[in-house]
Amino acid sequence: MATALVVGGRGFIGGFIVSALKQRGWQVRVLARPHGRMLAEGEVAGDLLRMLDAEDWAQALQGVSVVVNAAGILREEGRQQFEAIHVRAPLALAQACVSRGVRFVQISALGDPRDGGFIASKHRFDSALLALPLEAIVLRPSVVYSHRGSYGGTSLLRALAAFPWRQLLPGTGDWQFQPVCAEDLAQVAAVACTQGTAGIYDIGCAIPLSLHDYQAQWRRWLRIPGRRSWRVPLPLVRAQVWLGQWLGRGPVNRTIWNMLLRGNLTAAESHQRVQAEFGVQVRDLGEVLDAEPSQMQDRWAALLYFLVPWLKWSVVLLWLWSGIVGLVTDAAVIEAMARGSYLQAMQPVLLARGAGVLDLLLGAGLAWAPRPRPVVLAMLISVAAYALVFGALLPQQFLEPLGGLAKSVALLPALGVLWVLVDRR
């Protein structure tokens, strides 16, 4: 079997490309950062931030006949910069492909470079790639979605469509784009590994959709009642975009907003050109959704989208408040609470202050940790420990009129749900 190297194969789009290649009989090698873990079967170690020269790609390219680059970041953070991820590393890879006669398929993005650094850097590499003496195909998709999952902005749009009673619609919702199913994009990429004239191909469905129509179709597919919309005023939308840009988090940033405002449309005749060149028809959204009925899990994912941050930040505030209370409560009050129990001989004031510091650290950790699951697990352990220890030493806490320690019975499964939901990949 011929071997394909997929860069970004563990991402949303890359995963579908890996699957499509395997369906067509390819042996697939996926570039992956180890992060201290054992590599899975078919993975090869690599880090785009360190593979900035052609010779750095020699091992990954051994026995490879085609490369598919689906790597990308929507915003810069720390060492993750557009220039390195979108330009320098893939250009070094492409230069290494020249001497080995390896074909190159680039997953770029449809848009205007003036929309922001994400688009500008993608298109800058596209031009550099096509200037090299190698067989190169550049695919520029519009908004990419899948009924089998979502990520980033498509998750947000699906959640807006599924909002209880009425969908939430940014502004008037009349912005036009041509969404493409991830499975169709993956099939085009897989075919492009062996055929197609070098050049740039815009990828999108045949008929442009407005944002309102896009969300309405998703709502019908999810079988959520209500056809009306609550229109979110543009100033509020712009404020949310500004906040997301400033925080460096969330599915929306200034580039995505600019792309939406400008409209994300393919060039004339692009749909027909893609079908003629690769033999793949990029389906309209309605056709894709009609092919597969929604399931309960699809509705859960859409309806839980806004509940996840609500749950997360409620837990953050609860832990920070608990920490503050543990640090500022008068020592006499703490000693009075412990009087007559086993805690009286265990320096209860010191225990309360220590627990307060721990709660503050856990609350801050959940708020800012890039990988929050270990923090949530620590919270689970601490709540279970509090319930067991204080339940044994101060059993009267379970009998307080307002619940007191008894509320930990509900808090434990809530933290278990949060542990599952905070992992967005």
What distinguishing features does this structure have?
12% strand; globular; seven-stranded parallel beta sheet; alpha/beta; 16 helices; two-stranded parallel ribbon; 50% helix; Rossmann fold; 425 residues
Q: Average pLDDT across residues?
A: 89
Instruction: Enumerate how many helices there are, as a single number.
Output: 16
Q: How much beta, percentage-wise?
A: 5-15%
Fourth-tier CATH superfamily name of the largest domain: NAD(P)-binding Rossmann-like Domain
Walk me through what this model shows.
The chain has 425 residues and is α/β, with parallel strands linked by helices. The protein contains 16 helices and 13 strands. The strands form 4 sheets. It has a 7-stranded parallel sheet, with helices on both faces. β5, α3 and β6 form a beta-alpha-beta unit. α1 packs across α5, α4 packs across α6 and α14 runs antiparallel to α15.
